[in-house]
Amino acid sequence: MNNKCYIAIDCGGTKIAAALFSEQGQILKEETLKLEGAGGKDAADKIVTLINSLLHHAQTSNSVPVSLGVCIPGIVYHDTGKVWAPNIPDWDEYPLLDHLLKSLPKSIKVSIDSDRACYILGETWMGSAKGAKNAIFVAVGTGIGAGILVDGKILRGHGDIAGATGWMALQRPYNKKFDACGNFEYYASGDGVARTAKEILKNTTGYEGTLNPGTLRSEDVFEAFDKGDPVAIETFGQCIELWGMAVANYVSLFNPEKIILGGGVFGPAVKFIPQIMEEAKKWAQPISITQVSLKATTLGKHAGLIGAGRLAMLNT
Amino acid sequence: MNNKCYIAIDCGGTKIAAALFSEQGQILKEETLKLEGAGGKDAADKIVTLINSLLHHAQTSNSVPVSLGVCIPGIVYHDTGKVWAPNIPDWDEYPLLDHLLKSLPKSIKVSIDSDRACYILGETWMGSAKGAKNAIFVAVGTGIGAGILVDGKILRGHGDIAGATGWMALQRPYNKKFDACGNFEYYASGDGVARTAKEILKNTTGYEGTLNPGTLRSEDVFEAFDKGDPVAIETFGQCIELWGMAVANYVSLFNPEKIILGGGVFGPAVKFIPQIMEEAKKWAQPISITQVSLKATTLGKHAGLIGAGRLAMLNT
After folding, report:
1. Which of A117, A196, A288, B95 is most buried, most CB within 10 Å of its CB?
2. Are residues A27 and A78 part of one domain?
3. A271 CB within 8 Å of a chain B CB
4. pTM of the model
5. How far apart are CA A102 and CA A177, in angstroms?
């Protein structure tokens, strides 16, 4: 008897990861391919190459692939199947769905979704939000974005760009410097940690620590924090406040069961989660806050691939 | 031939409004009953009285009532059918659904939802958000709450208390005074307008206007604004900033097609909508903000009853 299986593709900025999932969620086969700067149709062809290799593997192991899920580092327009990914050349309104449908056996159903959508699908399937139907994944990296699950479905919005939480307004008055990325992201993303530290350094006299405003990156601030640097401590004090306010706003608006913090910053900021929850408790709707748990991602870098597998499985 | 019809109940704090809707959305019959302080089972019996009167009317006009929608000024727990309404005595976990199911013909399906959920259902059916599947109704009255429609469905959250937007954090640092109602509501609800004006008055020397901090209500601030009072002007400057930030946050998180402002404050604050949109544009995700329109409610006090009608119609 043949078993059903599902193909997952996680398209990053530099490489593509692919996996074949069993119906039970086991990874039967995993492969990766470097993008090597490929964009447009060439990048899409690399995805097809990986899929064909997995299809071949499925055939030799008597599994029947029924659907494909693709995780994209950008925006997916669901009415057209076109994608926009800032780190992949020529993927600006690129017709990825059409390309895949043309290149693959007609029996295979195809779904494409954004990385943040896949992250929360992955976490509710196998990770820190397992089984939750109302859950939010907050990806804090270079930028900040959120994948939001409402009653088991991805919140997409009118134009497929819901979850742009880096643009959240948390501190009036408005300042022109927020224009490029939004107020929350300006101060509390990976780059934001560095920006906050630089602003504090600028207003600190007699500082004798190791932080250098000319070369400062978030990694330096984390390192300085562990050594007790006062500017790093103040920086994370401010970031914890903003992360806590953001969590509070998700809680009051969405009344979720789980909020998962991930991305490069969580990571090293995982140690702050108890303090972030304390800050959130001050602001949030007082009943909703007792109904939520705030956790770090347990899937880490695999969240996109696992989410793509779940995406495939939900489309059958 | 008999036509289908739908029963709507809008339960306020002082009276109950009821209507019979045709399939085309026309009101065939409307009635009201004063609550006169009734709570618990007595309040529920008044609802049943109104429904029976409408059932009788339907019979005499050859219409067949297929479902009932009830709008409640509080929280509805959908797994138990119990309701909580702070302004109706003994409606704390009151089993309203059970009571209605026992008291009505078995052929009639019953749905109950919160006022803010009904408001957005009403507005997307017949009001300012007609046809929108992703839309938000922000009710700014004594408090602030939101009814949020995601892909045509009411956002309820894990514990049925999503949309508690009055608790939104918009201004750090946290202050104990926000504990009772939340930061946004503290400054920008009807009561919040008065609180903001009082804080400004306290910090203003040489004020010669009519505003009296001892007796101040939001109505007074609106009146003073129309006469050019500087404290009232500053008050609404701050409220517009907060309303704009809140709108921006809905836009960035939900990417909605419509945001509707209603409640007692919108009302007289409708004149500020262009300025609120200008403020929101500064903060919000720049593509999402171009996809949304911000409007005042056109249903006004009928939004709850119309929404209850829609609620009934959706449950067939």
Report:
1. A117
2. yes
3. no
4. 0.96
5. 45
Structure tokens at B313: 């119609």
Please identify among residues 207-246 of chain A the ones whose CB lies closer than 8 Å to any CB of chain B.
Answer: 241-242, 245
Kind plus residue range of the DSSP H or E element containing A111: strand A109-114
What is the average pLDDT across B274-293?
98
Report how far residue A256's alpha carbon sits from residue A254's, in angstroms, rounded to the nearest whole number: 5
Residue of A nearest to B243 (CA): A169
Span B278-293, average pLDDT: 98
Distance, in angstroms, between B31 CA and closest chain A CA?
A: 34
Residue A183: which CATH number? 3.30.420.40
**Average pLDDT of B219-246?**
98
Task: Identify whether residues B96 and B140 lie together within a single domain.
Answer: no
Provide mean pLDDT across the span B170-178. Answer: 96
Same domain, B288 and B310: no
A131 touches chain B (CB under 8 A): no
pLDDT at B176: 97
Rounded CA-CA distance B316/B66 in Å is: 7
Give the domain range for residue A23: 3-123+302-314
CA atoms within 13 A on the CB side of A83: 28
Q: Given CB atoms, is B144 within the 8 Å cutoff of chain A?
A: no
Give Cβ neighbours of residue A297 (< 8 Å, ≥ 6 apart): A119, A123, A127, A128, A137, A260, A261, A262, A266, A303
pLDDT band of residue A61 (cuts 50, 70, 90) is confident
Residue B106, pLDDT above cutoff 80: yes
Q: Residue B67: enclosing H or E segment and its boundaries?
A: strand B63-72
Which of A78, A116, A249 has the most B C-beta neighbours within 10 Å, making it the best mutation to test the interface with B? A249
Q: Nearest to residue A297, comparing CAs of A271, A262, A270?
A: A262
Confidence bin at B1 (pLDDT 50/70/90): low
Say yes or no: A146 and A271 in one domain. Answer: yes
**Binning pLDDT at 50, 70 and 90, where does residue A1 land?**
low
Average of pLDDT values for A32-55? 96
Task: Assess whether A193 and A259 both reside in one domain.
Answer: yes
For residue B159, give how far its alpha carbon lies from the nearest alpha carbon of chain A (Å): 7
Say yes or no: A247 and A156 in one domain.
yes
What kind and span of H or E run contains B19? Answer: strand B15-22
- Would an 8 Å CB–CB cutoff place A198 in contact with chain B? no
pLDDT, average across residues B165-187: 97
The tally of domains found in chain A comes to 2
Q: Do B255 and A161 touch (CB under 8 A)?
A: yes
Do B248 and A167 count as a contact with CB atoms less than 8 A apart?
Answer: yes
B12 and B84, same structural domain? yes
- Hey, are the CB atoms on A245 and B172 less than 8 Å from each other? yes
Angular region, B70: left φ>0, alpha ψ -120 to 50, beta rest? beta
B15-22 and B3-11: which strand pairing? antiparallel
Which residue's structure tokens are 């009853």? B305
Q: Both A103 and A136 in a single domain?
A: no
CB B296 within 8 A of CB B123: no
ipTM for the whole predicted complex goes beyond 0.85:
yes
If 0-12 CB within 10 Å is exposed, 13-18 middle and 19+ buried, where does residue B243 land? Answer: buried
**What's the Cα-to-Cα distance from A139 to each of A111, A239, A297, rounded to whole Å?**
22, 15, 10
